[in-house]
Design goal:
The protein has two domains: about 200 residues, Aspartate Aminotransferase, domain 1; about 260 residues, Type I PLP-dependent aspartate aminotransferase-like (Major domain) (Aspartate Aminotransferase, domain 2, 3-Layer(aba) Sandwich). It is about 40% helix and about 15% strand. The strands form four sheets. A seven-stranded mixed sheet has the order 4-12-11-10-7-5-6, with helices on both faces. The chain has a four-stranded mixed sheet with strand order 1-2-3-15. Helix 10 links the parallel strand 10 and strand 11. Helix 13 runs parallel beside helix 16.
Length: about 475
């Protein structure tokens, strides 16, 4: 009952501020499924509609300003509409080339830069346009290379809407993460996706002992995103490398989020653990639709050079794969991060820690406990992520179960109430938090902490 009253109050206050967005959403709902094309953007009672975005700020059609920590699905490490990307694209746009469907030397430059950052011999790249496609193709390559059909992934891990991996994303009470996430797929798909626990070495060893000879691939995020902004331990990644080698399994690191986010390379470089295949996206596109599958030559060449008894993997990319505009934006971003990494990563890391500490402090002052995940570890010193969790039990929030089990954390409070409460106070987050960009300032962080303080007072009043 208390939660219902709180949500009713927050929805009413939000609706007062977003009348034009409400009109647009009603119109959109007549012609689009749920009024849009990406479920996570369609929060209750309706999303605001953006008018403009610059740096750390977003303005909606009603004129409301928000400090934004979603930052283009975590793709905008330099903030919205950064000058460095605009400068790279202006000459190209003036030339009037746009999409041609031909090969361009720019993709070669971006591929070389990505490979140089990894400092690993014998790798090749193929570009596509989304993390979902990259994950799908990586699994297909692993299956084609090994001749096996089972895939192992981490419970709470999200690898886009790849049909080969739509299991174990959402937590369900009584079942945990070991359940399918989508209708419309053959039942065999679900049966051949196996789930292991995040950063649990014992469970991983037991799983490989039982299924290792059947596995084509083990895919994991070294920094798990939706699962709670948590870093794997070095011990876990090293064990994953040993076990996949022992059983002839392709080790895939999904670095769609973590790639170039914590250093000017994959986070694998900081850990010193090299996978067989890596997935990159978000940051390597500079705000454009770019993803890449990077892997050992003998695996990647399954696209073109199958063995005598094997059919080739049909990894064709797509109409807009390596589109020159996308490649130019990505190259500008990768170049900038490589040249300024000593400034970028410590700055956003320290700013994020100030924000995490500030949020925990203002809730504590209202006698409400929160735990911010997203902090770095002994390997990754500067993490720019934060997620606010409301524990129901004394837990450390070290795995996705702690973050998504409603018996352990108040998921409704984080996902719905906190979202709306922050919006009416001029801050936009997803899953209770988000990421910092170089466009965010100390003043922005102070404003954000003040907004969380006001939210804490509201929660205290109603709960």
């Amino acid at each position: 009952m208390k939660m219902k009253k709180l949500l009713k109050y927050l929805e009413t206050e939000y609706q007062k501020k977003t009348r034009q967005s409400a009109i647009l959403f009603k119109r959109a709902s007549r012609v689009m499924v749920r009024g849009g094309s990406h479920t996570l953007r369609l929060w209750k009672p309706y999303p605001f509609f953006m008018a403009s975005a610059q740096g750390a700020q977003v303005r909606d059609v009603d004129g409301n300003q928000y400090l934004d920590y979603w930052q283009g699905h975590y793709a905008n490490i330099l903030g919205h509409n950064p000058a460095v990307i605009r400068r790279a694209l202006e000459p190209y746009i003036k030339a009037g080339t746009f999409h041609t469907g031909f090969e361009s030397s720019v993709q070669l430059e971006l591929a070389e830069k990505i490979l140089a950052s990894l400092k690993q011999q014998g790798l090749k790249v193929r570009f596509t346009t989304s993390g979902t496609l990259a994950a799908t193709y990586a699994v297909m390559l692993a299956m084609g290379y090994t001749g096996r059909e089972y895939i192992l992934k981490i419970g709470g891990g999200w690898h886009g809407a790849s049909p080969y991996l739509l299991k174990g994303v959402k937590f369900r009470p009584g079942q945990g993460f070991n359940v399918p996430d989508s209708a419309g797929l053959p039942s065999d798909f679900h049966k051949k996706i196996l789930i292991t626990r995040f950063d649990d070495c014992d469970h991983l060893e037991k799983t490989f002992k039982k299924y290792g000879s059947k596995l084509a691939a083990f895919i994991l995020e070294p920094f798990i995103g939706v699962g709670g902004f948590l870093f794997c331990s070095r011990e876990y990644l090293e064990l994953a490398r040993r076990l996949t080698d022992r059983y002839g399994v392709v080790l895939i690191f999904d670095e769609i989020i973590s790639g170039f986010r914590f250093c000017a390379s994959g986070v694998q470089k900081l850990y010193g653990v090299q996978p067989d295949v890596s997935l990159f996206g978000k940051l390597i596109g500079g705000g454009q639709a770019v993803a890449a599958v990077v892997g050992r030559s003998e695996i990647m060449e399954g696209c073109e050079k199958p063995g005598a008894r094997k059919m080739r993997v049909h990894f064709e990319g797509g109409t807009f794969s390596s589109h020159e505009e996308y490649m130019r934006a990505g190259l500008a971003m990768v170049d900038y991060l490589s040249q300024h990494q000593k400034e970028v990563y410590p700055y956003i890391g320290k700013l994020a820690e100030k924000l995490r500490q500030g949020i925990e402090k203002v809730f504590k002052e209202e006698a409400l406990e929160v735990v911010c995940t997203g902090r770095g570890n002994e390997i990754v010193k500067d993490s720019s992520f934060f997620m606010v969790n409301f524990p129901k039990k004394k837990i450390a929030h070290k795995n996705p179960e702690d973050v998504w089990d409603p018996e352990r954390s108040d998921v409704l409070l984080r996902e719905e109430a906190l979202k709306l409460a922050l919006l009416i106070n001029g801050v936009h987050v997803v899953h209770g938090g988000g990421c910092l960009s170089t466009a965010h300032t100390e003043k922005d962080v102070e404003k954000t902490v003040a907004a969380y303080a006001e939210v804490a007072r509201i929660f205290r009043k109603y709960l």
